[in-house]
Design brief:
This protein is α+β, with helices and mostly antiparallel strands. Strands 5, 6, 7, 8, 9, 10, 13, 14, 15 and 16 form a ten-stranded mixed beta sheet that branches. It has a four-stranded antiparallel beta sheet with strand order 1-4-2-3, with no helix packed on it. It has a two-stranded antiparallel ribbon with strand order 11-12. The chain contains eight helices and 16 strands. It has three domains: about 60 residues, RNA-binding S4 domain (Structural Genomics Hypothetical 15.5 Kd Protein In mrcA-pckA Intergenic Region, Chain A, Roll); about 80 residues, Pseudouridine synthase (2-Layer Sandwich), CATH 3.30.2350; about 140 residues, Pseudouridine synthase (2-Layer Sandwich), CATH 3.30.2350. Strand 13 and strand 14 form a beta hairpin. The N and C termini lie far apart (about 60 Å).
Length: about 325
Amino acid sequence: MSESQQKKPTVRNVRIEPGYEGQRIDNFLLALLKGVPRSYVYRIVRRGEVRVNKGRIQAGYRLRAGDLVRVPPVRVAERVHTTPDSRLLERLEQAILYEDRRLLVLNKPSGIAVHGGSGLKYGVIEAFRAMRPGERYLELVHRLDRETSGCLLIAKRRSVLRDLHEMLRGTGVDKRYLALLEGTWQQERVEVKAALQKNTLRGGERVVRIHPDGKEAVTRFRVRERFQGSMLVEARPVTGRTHQIRVHATHQGTPILGDAKYGDEDANREFRALGLKRLFLHAESLRFRLPDEKELKIQAPLEQPLESLLARLRR
């Protein structure tokens, strides 16, 4: 690509306006520098090339109204606008559970990433931006692992994103997951309190471990149904750490079935023969109330292969 086809990089100084505070600096930069690899964004933050009020910051820094953000020269190639596969767009359109002027809730299918990257051109958010070119603002409120299905929130307004992020940091959003675990517990309810720490292995694969120096993490489990050698549980993550439910379930000696990263290989092989081709983790419901609005409760039905598996286990 010639120089004329590229944007000439210059230093930018961006003032954060009221209404945009609370956003993490890494997410702000990823939105501002569309097309730049995530790894590069984190690198320029780590090197101190990004400054807030002339000082160095961490990737988790939350912006405040009036902050002055220095963005270093970053060359962004002009992107060739392509359209996501029409089958993906149709599948996502059909998966919408709720939509109004402020937000959208999707029953995300398993196997679809929430955002592009790591060799993926399109994730859920890129696909929705392509489907809704008239929407001025579409941002993920939270994330789900690629293999996890269920309720995914997308904000249509910056103010709504800010409100929901604040609620997610506290107790304003009630999130419930369904998981099929290997083994069984004597108790009906189990609360797991175990700090989690992210680790990166060779090849860039990220795993999360129980570690006393990690971040506080709490998950509350409740048994919904028991089967021979497995159980269906409801999981309520009180905190929202990466892979929290998966790691906490394994920590109890009852990993989620179909979990290739933290699960039991022999049990996964046994359940593959019964038809389980994916991680059995599903974001079943969300309940929250935005300021000056009525309470919303959204429930996402299980995908048919998971329903069929449960029917087999009941027999």
